[in-house]
């Protein structure tokens, strides 16, 4: 049994070796014309004639290439033999061809390892065909129109292919711009050239396949053009198919307007900061940032608005010197430079002089009737929120009849303020409360007032006060006065 298996294996190996030897065996060809592939009897072979015959015999040529094991060369051969140069030359004696197509009994066949063994070199046409950056030579003998593949295969240098990508296509000043030529093929080196909108060359950068990227930036707005080239291994320069353009955004222009300058008596009143006059040359305003700084340069308030009309109203509760700094941003994120039109310094002052009007109820010494009084006058800050001066005067009307009469009083006071509470004193005068009593007479008083602010809107105030008037040089029992009242300052 083992002997039989060994014998069968020996036979199979012998057949394989004999088959390989038969393929490797060279057939000596001493003459042509016996088994022709494409010929026209009676006509001298010319490239034009052969091209026409090959068009007619396209199906047979396809069969022959398939039998020869080079199907991939069929289409390049058919496409390129129409325009390729047909070189009229001779095949030297002893030249071996890997295969040759011929016809026998109207059948397409392939002969392999054909050696020309004629007495003289064989007249042939040689046609070069390119496939996958290799150049193949096909040999077509004059006398038979057979197609043979030459053993000469030449590696071609692939031309450079230039690729250029620039990102981003739109940016702000001093943003990084990345140039990428890594997509270039078969390049020995690459070059990128940058020009401005007027065509002025700004920069040239050399790149390599090992270092195909470059980063740059622009500090001026405008449009910039990038052109790329790639130099191949053969020294030929290939331009990139298209150029790349980068638009550097123009920054927005800030305009600032304020409702007062200087802002006298504006403590407690809204001041408007208006940036609606701002604009953007190549886009639109998307955001405005207002920063309020005190006299020491510290930011004390900020307003960010993303809606028109780009206005901020601010109420100041303290007098002082302030600076408003405004920055506008466009839809690409670029911001306006910090410049004078958008940085204003101004002074806000507090209202110091007010008119006053008020009234209340009073009890006057020696009288049995209540009085209703009305007064008007002035209120002035000596030191805002600390010391003030008031000058008021008016009349009192008794709620009972004779002998009580309408009286007049006035006072000038200096007041100390302790947040909303105040206390003041000074000098005043009062007229007589009775017409027929010598004890009730005109004279000087020392008024004392205490009270608090009911409301304080800086430009107007409401005060509730209590008053006692101490008579000088007159009977205390007949001339003291007290009251409670409310006054409005405006």
Shape label: rod-shaped
Question: Which spans of ≥5 residues are poorly predicted at pLDDT below 50?
Answer: 14-23
Trace the largest sheet across and list its strands: 24-25-26-27-28-29-30-31
- Please give the domain count: 4
Describe the largest sheet: 8 strands, antiparallel, barrel
Strand content: over 45%
Average pLDDT reading: 90
Helix content percent band: 10-25%
Helices and strands: which structural class? mainly beta
Radius of gyration: 55 Å
Terminus-to-terminus distance: 132 Å
Extended strand count: 31
Q: Helix segment count?
A: 5
How would you characterize the overall build of this protein?
The protein has 490 residues and is mainly β. The protein folds into four domains: 2-155, no CATH class; 165-248, Immunoglobulin-like (Sandwich), CATH 2.60.40.10; 257-348, Immunoglobulin-like (Sandwich); 353-489, Porin. Helix content is 11%, strand content 50%. It is built from five helices and 31 strands. It has helices spanning 2-24, 47-56, 58-68, 74-80, 476-479; strands at 27-29, 86-91, 96-104, 107-116, 122-131, 134-141, 147-155, 165-167, 170-171, 177-180, 187-195, 201-207, 213-216, 222-232, 237-239, 244-248, 257-258, 270-274, 285-293, 299-305, 311-315, 320-330, 343-348, 353-364, 370-383, 387-398, 407-418, 421-430, 443-456, 461-472, 481-489. The strands form six sheets. The chain has an eight-stranded antiparallel β-barrel with strand order 24-25-26-27-28-29-30-31. A seven-stranded mixed sheet has the order 1-4-3-7-6-5-2. β5 and β6 (134-141) form a beta hairpin. The longest helix has 23 residues, at 2-24. The radius of gyration is 55 Å and the shape is rod-shaped. The termini are far apart. Mean pLDDT is 90; it is low at 14-23.
